[in-house]
């Protein structure tokens, strides 16, 4: 089965085009301490994206939990300071509780007075990664790379990429992350999601349920 998979990927034109191009040698990992789910979040922005979506959106605001690797992402025309704060309120605090640490780069929209007020209000520690070393916020950089790769495969130059984002997130959340050896969905909800493959080729649990 493994050999057949390798041969399939080699024959797949899209797999060859969108495969990772690793230019630097592997380095020793320096894992950050995230003792429980949703204690540490990293936030970053993808964009500007060309072509922009049909609704005018050009940016994706991405947040990833360092423990479960769960990803939240929303598209915007422009990532304003208020948009960042609203995103933190609705997609992190109200959904997963108050984090202990939020890590961003030094971009102005991620380091506004509104952001400072939110962190003070909820007693969140706001840490920064240097723009000259984005690996310091490596979990988000890896998530960004994977989301962009999934979108490229799904959209193929179409301006409807904003509609495909939820499906890209689903694919990311239901794929085993090698760093934790499990899917983010399993670590968050305690069970695996029913994915489209199980509908096309019924799995044991979907057969039993039926």
From TrEMBL:
Entry-linked Pfam families: rve
Cross-referenced PROSITE patterns: INTEGRASE
InterPro entries recorded: Integrase_cat-core, Retrovirus_Pol_polyprotein, RNaseH-like_sf, RNaseH_sf
Integrase catalytic domain: residues covered: 31-192
Gene3D superfamilies to which the protein is assigned, alphabetical: Ribonuclease H-like superfamily/Ribonuclease H
Highest rank taxon of the organism: Eukaryota
PANTHER family, sorted: PROTEIN CBG26694, PROTEIN NYNRIN-LIKE
Name used for this protein in its record: Uncharacterized protein K02A2.6-like
Organism: Solanum pennellii (Tomato)
């Amino acid at each position: 089965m493994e050999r057949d998979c390798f041969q399939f990927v080699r024959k797949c034109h899209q797999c060859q085009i969108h495969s990772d191009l690793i230019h630097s040698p592997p380095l020793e990992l320096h894992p950050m301490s995230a003792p429980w789910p949703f204690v540490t979040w990293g936030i970053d922005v993808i964009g500007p994206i060309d072509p922009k979506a049909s609704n005018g959106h050009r940016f994706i605001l991405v947040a990833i939990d360092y423990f479960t690797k769960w990803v939240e992402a929303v598209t915007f025309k422009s990532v304003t300071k208020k948009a960042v704060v609203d995103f933190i309120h609705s997609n992190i605090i109200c959904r997963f509780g108050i984090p202990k640490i939020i890590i961003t780069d030094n971009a102005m929209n991620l380091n506004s007075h509104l952001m400072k007020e939110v962190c003070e209000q909820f007693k969140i520690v706001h840490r920064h990664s240097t723009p000259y070393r984005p690996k310091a916020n490596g979990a988000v950089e890896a998530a960004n790379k994977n989301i962009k790769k999934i979108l490229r495969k799904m959209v193929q130059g179409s301006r409807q990429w904003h509609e495909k984002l939820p499906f890209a997130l689903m694919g990311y959340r239901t794929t085993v992350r090698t760093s934790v050896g499990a899917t983010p969905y399993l670590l968050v909800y305690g069970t695996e999601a029913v994915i489209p493959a199980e509908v096309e080729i019924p799995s044991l649990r979907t057969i039993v349920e039926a």
